[in-house]
Design a protein that fits this description.
By secondary structure, the protein is an alpha+beta fold. It contains 27 helices and 29 strands. The strands form eight sheets. Strands 5-4-8-2-1-11-14-13 form an eight-stranded mixed beta sheet, with no helix packed on it. The chain has a five-stranded mixed beta sheet with strand order 16-17-18-20-19, with helices on one face. Strands 27-24-23-29 form a four-stranded mixed beta sheet. A hairpin with a 2-residue loop joins strand 16 and strand 17. Helix 3 packs antiparallel against helix 4 and helix 16 packs across helix 17. It is globular.
Length: 854
């Protein structure tokens, strides 16, 4: 599954009732499910009939499995009729029979009913203006809301699914349809082929009116499906899926095992996408894009998400983690693989640069005081849901990328193949994965990965001056909020060094105090290719040499990594903010948009987190003076579709607009007027940024127009962008109107939290939004879904005062949001870090501004 938050990759959760000991007993295991389900879309309910073949390890009169929000009407086994008792806190039901069932095979026959809920989990209702759909989302612990089940990843079984639906509807499930017969009273029953052994969370069924584009790859039929009105937006994802299936067949050395592959866009969907075996489901914005006229950034996003979920068909579906504490085996691998596969398909889109930027974000996320180990305790549904975070995705993916870089791509690939081949259709642990890599490579991958999987945080490598080709090096844990410098690290990690000679890799262990690089001259950079999961600090002379040679001596990912390291040291108080600003201005003419974005983004954070209002105005003047001439080189629109030039123009235009550059703001207004007049905008590169800048100072008429686009646009991407633009208006009346609209029931609950979170994150609306949330909490809470509670709490981490920190803590102490304990702790961390940062760096910023004539 891939999550969706403001930047990327994360699903946090609002899980179920907390409590320990929710694991099922091991005396009964499932072998096969036969599910017959009849949804009533008008009544928002469904009826289920289940035959469940199980094996009992010893005689028993009782069988306990998972069930929640289901009404079980009858259960039979071995000619006996059982009774049902429920334990809602554990999300379990126990079937008790008059006599003891013997050890060995038994079949449970269960009749039950359930509700099609509006919480985007289990078997739920999705709506369009035309009709209702019934769809599923079972990861992580919600199959139990659709059928009584042994709802744990290691409890694999095979599945037969049949769905009885209205005569005009169709259905999609994991496998292909093997029969379609009338079922009387305007109904028909579709029966699907038996699945291979799989976990319950990977089962899927969808009912409604779907239109599909069709293709194939390596003999496998592939469809991309949507609601009928969006069929024209499915062709790009179809081409992506065709390419990736062939790519993965070759990469893994194991053929895709299912009889078909469907990718389905769903109007209401919590996460970004979900890797159901053979029937992958998506939020519409992550799947549907105009193949001809869609923006490159939208196509990049769709290609990455398609690549991520398809990687799961092997790594996660075919071979599944033993338990949720090793969720990283699924999500970390797919996060790493998505960029590898998408980059192979479209190398001109420069995915390695995105990887470097994502690594920088992940390192800062993991360097907070509140973080966790990659492999962490997860027993209750709430704890499991909180595992879907930046650690399981970003950190795990980065560590996997570091190991691949150290071993070499082909050696690593062979290790992946060996791991999959050894556990086909079974379950595996972290040790299984790294032992396969260790055995294949003859390198200590087990020690490397164990040191990152089982301890939290980020290493900081500090290098002294070279003597006789040897650099002194120390490692300790790095905290982005500063302090705790005495905590010595215990990592075993590969360090690949770039010198004026050939790159050199060496394995550092906790006792290593020197790094030998040989005769490499004065130049020394300690993270070649930017693949290492660590921060670096250098002696002054080394840093000066690196900075002087950055443009010619470092690759683009390395330059992004250098900027990231220097900014992280600034945040921690180990380097003055003025020193970072000097570096940022030194690379203002860099021709790579991601490098420029890294520098400009940090300048924006300096404005928001460190500067007083007076100093912010002075910093804006510096930005206008330094980057205005750079913009002048790019100001003229060109017909060329140079993607990187488009990105640079957008980055500079946006940053200068935020710095109140009058020329840029006037142009943004002109572009927006042109757009709203219905004309084709000539400067297409700047449309999105121009609208966002204009919205910030926009009036009610402009707001109303954006509202109509958010409601009427056929393209999901345009609709989503227009909706989020509503949260960009600074006018208090319009900002309040957006908050009220978010909880009005007119916004899908997958999106309502986003509007509130945006306003909480923006300095111009933060105070208003926070007071409104506190005053309308019942309405806000009613909109929260499985993931959005934690995401909403995270947005409060943008405050920067002790007073607001205490308000946030006190409010959520009395208004708890389940499965969001870590989100609240990280938000409090973020506020504390901002307070400390302002106290540490405000004086230095004033000095730097004065030295630059401000």
């Amino acid at each position: 599954m891939i999550g969706r938050v403001g930047c990327c990759l994360v699903v946090l959760g609002l899980g179920s009732v907390a409590g320990l000991g929710q694991r099922l007993p091991l005396n009964v295991r499932p072998d096969h499910y036969s599910l017959s389900i009849a949804p009533d879309l008008a009544a928002k309910s469904f009826r289920g009939s289940e035959r469940l073949d199980v094996t009992l390890a010893q005689p028993s009169a009782a069988i306990t499995l998972n069930a929640i929000e289901l009404k079980i009407e009858s259960v039979k086994a071995g000619g006996q009729t059982g009774t049902v008792s429920y334990d809602p806190a554990k999300e379990q039901a126990t079937f008790t029979f008059p006599g003891v069932l013997p050890a060995g095979a038994a079949t449970l026959e269960v009749e039950y009913t359930g509700l099609l809920n509006d919480k985007l989990r289990g078997f739920y209702l999705s709506k369009t203006k035309a009709r209702n759909y019934a769809v599923t989302q079972f990861e992580s612990t919600d199959a139990r809301r659709a059928f009584p089940s042994f709802d744990e990843p290691a409890m694999k079984a095979t599945f037969d699914v049949s769905l009885t639906v209205d005569a005009g509807d169709t259905a999609i499930s994991n496998t292909n349809i093997v029969s379609d017969v009338p079922a009387g009273a305007g109904k028909h029953t579709l029966t699907f082929a038996r699945t291979p052994k799989m976990s319950t969370y990977l089962v899927a069924f969808l009912v409604g009116d779907f239109a599909c584009s069709k293709g194939s790859a390596d003999g496998v039929p592939i469809r991309v499906c949507s609601t009928p009105d969006k069929i024209k937006l499915t062709t790009f994802a179809l081409a992506a899926a065709e390419h990736f299936l062939t790519y993965y067949d070759n990469y893994f050395g194991v053929k895709y095992p299912m009889p078909k592959l469907d990718l389905i866009g769903i109007p209401d969907f919590e996460a970004g996408a979900m890797e159901n075996f053979g029937a992958i489901t998506y939020r519409e914005t992550e799947l549907l894009v105009d193949d001809k006229d869609g923006a490159v950034q939208e196509k990049k996003r769709v290609s990455s998400v398609v690549a991520h979920e398809m990687a799961h068909q092997w790594f996660g579906d075919m071979v599944t983690m033993q338990w949720w504490d090793n969720l990283w085996l699924n999500e970390g691998f797919a996060t790493w693989m998505e960029n590898k596969a998408a980059g192979e398909w479209h190398p001109e889109w420069h995915f390695p640069q995105d990887v470097a930027s994502e690594l920088d974000e992940t390192l800062n996320y993991d360097a907070a005081r509140t973080t966790r180990t990659i492999r962490a305790k997860a027993e209750t549904p709430g704890q499991i849901q909180e595992m879907f975070d930046g650690i399981s995705y970003g950190k795990a993916g980065a560590v996997i990328g570091m190991v691949e870089s150290f071993l070499g791509a082909e050696v690593f690939r062979q290790g992946v193949h060996n791991y999959l081949a050894a556990h086909l259709y079974g379950n595996a642990t972290a040790e299984d994965f790294w032992n396969a890599q260790t055995a294949n490579s003859k390198q200590p991958v087990d020690k490397i990965m164990a040191s990152f999987i089982d301890q939290p945080g980020v290493p900081l490598l500090t290098f002294g001056e070279m003597k006789d080709g040897v650099y002194p090096v120390t490692q300790r844990r790095f905290f982005v909020g500063g302090g705790d410098g005495a905590k010595v690290g215990t990592w075993t990690l590969p360090v690949c060094v770039k010198t004026s000679g050939a790159p050199h890799c060496e394995l550092l262990n906790p006792n290593t105090t020197t790094l030998r690089v040989g005769a490499g001259g004065a130049f020394f950079y300690a993270n070649a290719l930017d693949k290492g999961y660590y921060r670096t600090a250098y002696a002054p002379g080394q840093l000066k040499a690196i900075t002087a040679a950055a443009e010619s001596g470092l690759t683009i990912p390395e330059r992004i990594g250098l900027l990231g390291d220097r900014w992280a040291l600034t945040l921690s108080g180990q380097a003055p903010v003025g020193e970072y600003l000097d570096l940022a201005l030194a690379i203002k003419n860099d021709t790579n948009p991601e490098v420029l974005n890294s520098a400009l983004g940090s300048i924006g954070l300096i404005r928001n987190k460190i500067a007083t209002p007076e100093d912010a105005a002075k910093l804006d003047a510096v930005v206008r003076a330094e980057f205005g001439p750079v913009w002048a080189k790019y100001a003229k629109a060109e017909k060329s579709k140079d993607f990187e030039r488009q990105q640079i123009r957008s980055e500079l235009f946006h940053s200068l607009g935020l710095a109140d550059d009058p020329g840029v703001l006037n142009e943004a207004h002109a572009i927006t007027v042109e757009l709203l007049s219905g004309k084709k905008v000539e400067d297409e590169d700047l449309v999105d940024v121009a609208v966002a800048l204009s919205a910030s100072v926009g009036n009610e008429e402009f707001y109303n127009r954006m509202l109509v686009v958010s409601q009427k646009a056929e393209d999901p991407g345009l609709q989503s962008e227009a909706l989020e633009t509503l949260a960009q208006f600074k006018d208090p009346a319009l900002a309040t109107r957006t908050l009220e609209y978010a909880v009005s029931g007119q916004v899908r609950n997958q999106d309502s939290w986003v509007l509130i979170a945006i306003e909480l994150s923006r300095s111009a609306t933060r105070e208003l939004a926070w007071n409104w949330v506190k005053g309308h909490w019942d309405q806000v809470k009613a909109q929260l879904t499985t993931a959005s509670g934690g995401n909403l709490i995270s947005a409060t981490g943008t405050f920067c005062s002790v007073e607001k920190r205490d308000e946030v803590k006190e409010f959520f102490a009395s208004h708890p949001v389940e499965a969001s304990e870590r989100s609240l702790a990280k938000a409090v961390d973020s506020i504390n870090d901002c307070v400390r940062l302002r106290g540490t760096q405000e004086g230095n910023l004033k000095e730097w501004l004065a030295a630059h004539g401000q």
